[in-house]
Design brief:
InterPro entries: CMP_dCMP_dom, Cytidine_deaminase-like
Protein name: Diaminohydroxyphosphoribosylaminopyrimidine deaminase
Number of strands: 5
Helix content: 25-40%
CATH architecture: 3-Layer(aba) Sandwich
Shape: globular
Oligomer: single chain
Strand order of the largest sheet: 2-1-3-4-5
GO molecular function, one term: catalytic activity
Distance between the termini: 33 Å
Organism: Kribbella steppae
CATH superfamily: Cytidine Deaminase, domain 2
Order of helices and strands: HEEHEHEHEHH
């Protein structure tokens, strides 16, 4: 169930996705990790440092894996975390699970343009609380309109 801050932080993640260098081979995604006391722990966006970067992995690389705030944090991402990936050894879903982040909030489930994503299902199966705010999905679709034609 969404809390009052979810819409604010998810909108911030969506706004970050606008920073992504354009491409025709991957979605533009923004991600923010927020502590239980509403402190931004880390941010990331797709292709931030490398053409193969995903927003979630970038955000996670900016914070120590053993940070004691992660098991109480919320991960905000404009698009469902990937569950299949060719360019890296671990998917974003696996990285979130390894970080022990207990809650993920997203706007849009990944459409089957590139892969059949099962990020939400895998996170929920592992006990992660997943909250979707689908009313924000239209903005994410507009940012990624070049892939939806």
């Amino acid at each position: 169930m969404p809390d009052l801050d979810d819409r604010h932080w998810l909108q911030q993640a969506i706004d970050l996705s606008r920073s992504c260098p354009p491409t025709t081979t991957a979605f533009s995604v923004g991600a923010i990790i927020v502590s239980s006391d509403r402190e931004v722990l880390s941010t990331g966006y797709s292709r931030e440092t490398d053409p193969h970067d995903h927003a979630e992995e970038i955000a996670l690389t900016k914070i120590p894996a053993n940070d004691p705030r992660l098991p109480h944090a919320t991960f905000y991402t404009s698009l469902e975390p990937c569950s299949k990936r060719a360019s890296r050894p671990q998917t974003c879903t696996q990285l979130i699970l390894a970080a022990a982040i207990p809650r993920v909030v997203l706007a849009w489930r990944e459409p089957t343009i590139f892969v059949d994503c099962e990020g939400v299902e895998l996170l929920e199966a592992a006990g992660v609380a997943v909250v979707e705010l689908p009313d924000l999905a239209q903005e994410v679709k507009e940012i990624n309109a070049n892939l939806l034609d």
